[in-house]
């Protein structure tokens, strides 16, 4: 059986995840890294990317994360990030921006209509 370690993920909203996993793969400012149990102590800045967690039963879960900090020591990984989602963050932001554009177009139309009157 694969060795596991504990991971906790915290966001501004509080604790998001607290589980035992086999491997964590993430992107830092210096490239992609993978951490397994009994790795050496590690601290880095996470940049917006995928966070891939592999569990003891060989299943994987992909999260999309914003910026943050990761620390690993004594088979405990702590991640503090500004946002996390199961869907790509850029897609969410893009959809929000499209929604904002719709309202600004409506507002522009309303202003132009009022100017004509």
TrEMBL record:
<keyword id="KW-0813">Transport</keyword>
<keyword id="KW-0406">Ion transport</keyword>
<keyword id="KW-0472">Membrane</keyword>
<keyword id="KW-0139">CF(1)</keyword>
<dbReference type="InterPro" id="IPR020546">
    <property type="entry name" value="ATP_synth_F1_dsu/esu_N"/>
</dbReference>
<dbReference type="GO" id="GO:0046933">
    <property type="term" value="F:proton-transporting ATP synthase activity, rotational mechanism"/>
</dbReference>
<keyword id="KW-0066">ATP synthesis</keyword>
<dbReference type="GO" id="GO:0012505">
    <property type="term" value="C:endomembrane system"/>
</dbReference>
<comment type="similarity">
    <text>Belongs to the ATPase epsilon chain family.</text>
</comment>
<protein>
    <submittedName>
        <fullName>F0F1 ATP synthase subunit epsilon</fullName>
    </submittedName>
</protein>
<dbReference type="InterPro" id="IPR036771">
    <property type="entry name" value="ATPsynth_dsu/esu_N"/>
</dbReference>
<dbReference type="Pfam" id="PF02823">
    <property type="entry name" value="ATP-synt_DE_N"/>
</dbReference>
<dbReference type="InterPro" id="IPR001469">
    <property type="entry name" value="ATP_synth_F1_dsu/esu"/>
</dbReference>
<dbReference type="GO" id="GO:0045259">
    <property type="term" value="C:proton-transporting ATP synthase complex"/>
</dbReference>
<feature type="domain" description="ATP synthase F1 complex delta/epsilon subunit N-terminal">
    <location>
        <begin position="5"/>
        <end position="83"/>
    </location>
</feature>
